Amino acid sequence: MSNESLNRTSDVIGTPSQSNETPRVNVDVLKQRIIEQKKKDKFKRTIIFSTVCVSLGALTFLAN
């Protein structure tokens, strides 16, 4: 039984050292994702700002 546990432990320890290769990352893809996220954020801010302005205008109109 102790041999089994030692064998399993050595397998687990041996596996991570074999996968030392890191995958290559394409920087252009990451930049494109950042640009798309910024566009979405800008659109959200514009919608929120427009909604607030229209709401204030409607309240002002109704208050008079």
Describe it for me?
The chain is mainly α and 64 residues long. It has a domain at 27-64. The protein has two helices and no strands. The longest helix has 37 residues, at 27-63. The mean pLDDT is 84.
User: Nearest-angstrom radius of gyration?
Assistant: 29 Å
Shape by Cα distribution = elongated
Instruction: List how many beta strands DSSP finds.
Output: 0
Contiguous low-pLDDT stretches (5 residues minimum) are none
Query: What are the secondary-structure elements, in order, as H or E?
Result: HH
| Assembly classification | single chain
Straight-line distance between termini: 87 Å
Q: Can you summarize this structure?
A:
The protein is mostly helical and 64 residues long.
What layout of secondary structure does this protein have?
Elements: H1 2-18, H2 27-63
What are the main properties of this structure?
64 residues; mainly alpha
